[in-house]
Amino acid sequence: MLRRTVRAVGQWIVQFWADLKASTDASLLGVARFVGLLYGPIDRRLRIDEALRKALGYRLPSHVGWRHALGGITYLLFIILVVTGVLLAFYYRPSAQEAHPSIQHLVSQVSFGWLIRDLHVWAASLIVLALLAHMARVLFDAAYKPPRETNWLIGLLLLVVVLAFGATGYLLPWDQWAYWTVTEVLGAVAALPVLGAAAVEVLTGDEFVSGATLSRFFALHVIVLPWIAFALLGYHFTLIRRRGIAPPKETGATRAPWRLSAAWPEDETPDGVPFFPNHLLRSLIVAVMVLAVTVTLAVLYPRPVGELADPYQVPDELVSTWVPVDVSLALIRYVGPWGFTLFTLLGVSLALLPLFDRRPERRLRQRPVVAALGLTFFLGFAALWLAGRQLRSVPPSATLGQDVLEERVVPPAPGVPLPELGPTPQRPAPADSAARARGSP
Ligand code: HEM
Predict the structure, then answer these.
(1) What is the total count of domains within the chain?
(2) Does 223 fall in a domain?
(3) Among 118, 258, 336, 342, which is least packed, fewest CB within 10 Å?
(4) Is the model's pTM score more than 0.90?
């Protein structure tokens, strides 16, 4: 009996392996069929089987390689952020009284809470690096040229959304570093001409960063930005399918086809390589590596929880916990405000590239201005990041000194809790509750 079972299982494995080798797309479908996912009424109505078979057999141009996995890495990090963010939201309490203790509770009392939080924090930095690497790949491959310029602009909006996610999330731990870094950044934004002051007023919702600001940042972080990000990602991926992957830049000056038609470009690369197994396996290898790096960083370098935010006490040091904060600190402290403006302008000129570089020429040597702009921006970012890491823990800037505190209402005498920023209300002790239940005062 045992021998027959072992032989049957062995035969099934041999058959399954033969199926796997015989057909590129049958294997994945085989697994799905085996666990009973695709058969039955759902598949008959929605034709999932057919759609999956078509997607796996989709032929990509043969020049698609490892560098084309950078967009996928960015997407994977985005998914890690969404999953860990939802888990964090189960425990996080978005009020000035409860935010800090809820994070402390999460990292010290909840099983693997520390890991979930540090995965979220590290993925927030890694996604910025992956995004910039993906953007550099697109720039140097001239993949922003028509007919892909809309996707370049959608990508830039995604970059802005990712930065906004980080900026709004930065305040949520409600510790001294988060509080005073956001105060410093909002002070710089308020100084910007035209819309700066109005934008800060809307974002802050108060005279200075307070519980009202925390509520607004939380709403943006978990409600507004995710919807915008999902919509932009959906459009980004749809355009990739519609326009196809850009041809290799070595093809030189080829006039890119300009089509408004919604037809999928499947037939344009009949000699290409199928998505499965080629690119899917490559993506899976990269995904495992990205996961390993993120988990390792989260375990080895956790983000500590600072002191509870105190709006009446500037801390002695600000610890940076996000790559763009490192870069901004390096710009402001080493180069000055005009350096910050120049670097931002360089980024904006890259954003506008598809508007003025519309020649069909794709070879990098024939595009010296684009090459110089791109190299200055990406190498500049890397250098500033490394320099900013040396400033990890710095005293707050002079603008956060006495003048900021003087504008604030004098805090009440010690022991009297502030209406919005006071300590967490303590739960009554069990004895008190029992007394109250009996009606005693
Ligand atoms: C959350 C952010 C983003 C995600 C998840 C994402 C994902 C992807 C993926 C999976 C691809 C196809 C494979 C590849 O070329 O790597 C792609 C292509 C593309 N992306 Fe992104 N991307 C993001 C942001 C950006 C940004 C910031 C830009 C540029 C400013 C951009 C511009 C493009 C363009 C033009 C293509 C087409 C490339 C080609 O045809 O060769 N994307 N993106």
Answers:
(1) 1
(2) yes
(3) 258
(4) no
